[in-house]
Amino acid sequence: MDKPNILLITADQIRWDCLGAAGNPIIQTPNLDRLARRGILFRNGFSPDPICVPARATIMTGNYPQVCTGHKTNSGKIKEDQPLLTETLKSAGYHTYALGKLHFVPYAPPGEPRLVHGFQHAKITESGRMLAKFDPKNELGGIEDYIDYLEDVGWGGYSRAHGIGNNDVRPCRSPLPPEHYVDHWIADCTIEALNEHQNKRSEQPFFVWMSSPKPHSPYDPPRGYDDLYDPREIPPPFGWRDKSVEPALQEKDPAIDETRFAHGIDSISPEAWQVSRAYYYGSITFLDAQIGRVLEHLEKHDLIDNTLILFTADHGDLIGDFGSCFKACHHNGSVRVPFIAAGPGVKQGAESDARVGLQDILPTFAQAAGGDIGQEVQGKPLQPVFTSPEKGEDIRQYYYATTERGMGFSVMITDGVWKYIYSEAGAIEELYNNINDPKEEHNLAENPTHTDKLEEMRKALREEAMKLDDKDIFDGQGNLKSRSVDRSEFRHQYPTRMGWRWY
Length: 503
What we know:
It is a single chain. By secondary structure, the chain is of the alpha/beta class. It has a single domain (5-388), classed as Alkaline Phosphatase, subunit A (3-Layer(aba) Sandwich). It has helices at 30-38, 52-61, 65-68, 85-91, 129-134, 145-152, 182-200, 246-250, 254-262, 270-300, 332-335, 361-369, 383-387, 451-467, and strands at 5-12, 39-46, 95-100, 121-124, 206-215, 307-313, 340-342, 350-357, 399-405, 408-414, 418-423, 428-433. The strands form two sheets. The chain has an eight-stranded mixed β-sheet, sandwiched between helices.
């Protein structure tokens, strides 16, 4: 077979630094570490928009969300004029499979085809979101495949029986046995799809997207992984209840502060946060074990040497940093993602400082497959770095990211060393040196020593915004928009925002 098989593995809400291969001394990720040794670990992987739906739209189209959906928030259907990863690979002779979380919106009601953007086979879990919309008591069936599976094996309804919702940050072990936990099911489905392909379509290359909804909250690893890490030994979030950093916290994107209030984080003890972080780590290790099962299957069936594998995530999670949680901001815990490539044409045992992101997945796979995208996209094929990892400048000088919340937009640009962030709410500027200050605790935007660098990064951000068609961040005079924000109006918004739902 001349064309490589392609396996895309994605996690949901995993930080860039939660891999052993990335230098984390505590977390156990032996299979992803092994994958990194077989290929390239990218140390500057980013989400173009650190929220689930826009990030996934970018994976599918190779374009930023403002282009492919017109939305930077957790909404927006991919436009009809956009290229699709599935169609590009199908036209190159591939058969396509999606297993796990897609999060393509809008969700289709019962009786209508689900939106899968061209995947020929799909088994879906949306963590109960489709169920909540159309069948809260799960009386119909056929809405989410994983929910149906739990019914079939006698564990129906127990995925939320611990009482913790999708966007809750409190820790709680899953009541499900490990063999019925969602990531185990996704790995089972992936192996089943690989077997089916070998039996029925072995003359064709495959494209498989194995997509986990974890370690996204709820932080609820299955038994055996809830006590894998001693919460007393997990590094605490920086800035958590540390009064010496409160002034710095107030300079951050107000979205960080708003999230802290909305999810009631101030009501959680530091010790509870340590347990949440330990459970977050446990979920990652469980996911790693399931990825290992799939890699072993590829090895056993002599497929791994001809399979291009890429592992990444839609975005990260602050998991308590700056006294906040989740994503939708441009600090490293949120916007940086793990990014590993291995397989045919990829140098082994290498690392790269190239600035890469989710928009690069479609053009990279298209080039590997010999497929024609049909139009220019904003992502870049990564093959030049696959063969020469030191040639990061061949991809791009700067990485640009954008997002939007109720208080307005936030934008970022980085060259891998310096990062500049602008937040519409409060017109806040931030400048960090990520080599000297990887935790981004020291905002240098008002430091007179760095005036020239600040201006340089401002200029670069403006130029990239125009090039990437992100023009709505400017007002009528060409200035970055701003709006006032009153932090005293931030309020706890649970239970609706926290998601205390059975599903």
